[in-house]
Amino acid sequence: MKQWIVQAWDGDDEKALERRMKVREKHLAGARELKANGNFVIGGAMLDDDGKMIGSTMIVQFKDEDELQEWLDREPYIHEGVWATWEVYPYRVADV
């Protein structure tokens, strides 16, 4: 499988954390499904200096870019406006 890093930043408006918390359980359920299917390698929330969630970083793996895009197309943090920007980079986890 091919691997990617997904780095996503939440909005910086005053309702950003509220949006994240409203959708968080749907996002985590999707991450659990990815893990069960072997698509989730590792991930979590990025934090500011005060420990507040401000974004996400995930390493995911899929057969190809089409499967990656299918996941992005249904990711709740994208559809519900939590992630204001995101970037996806090809990646390879070291086999150590």
Report on the architecture of this protein:
- The protein is α+β, with helices and mostly antiparallel strands.
- It has helices spanning 16-36, 65-74, 76-79, and strands at 2-10, 40-47, 53-62, 83-91.
- It has a four-stranded antiparallel β-sheet.
- A hairpin with a 5-residue loop joins strand 2 (40-47) and strand 3.
- The relative contact order is 0.32.
Put simply, the count of helices is: 3
- Going by helix content, strand content and strand pairing, the class is alpha+beta
**How much of the sequence is in beta strands?**
35-45%
Mean pLDDT: 97
Unreliably modeled segments: none
Shape: globular
Short characterization:
By secondary structure, the chain is α+β, with helices and mostly antiparallel strands. It has helices at 16-36, 65-74, 76-79; strands spanning 2-10, 40-47, 53-62, 83-91.
Key words describing this protein structure:
38% strand; single chain; 3 helices; alpha+beta; 96 residues; four-stranded antiparallel β-sheet
Spell out the blueprint of helices and strands.
Blueprint lengths: L1 E9 L5 H21 L3 E8 L5 E10 L2 H10 L1 H4 L3 E9 L5
Antiparallel strand pairs: 1-3, 1-4, 2-3
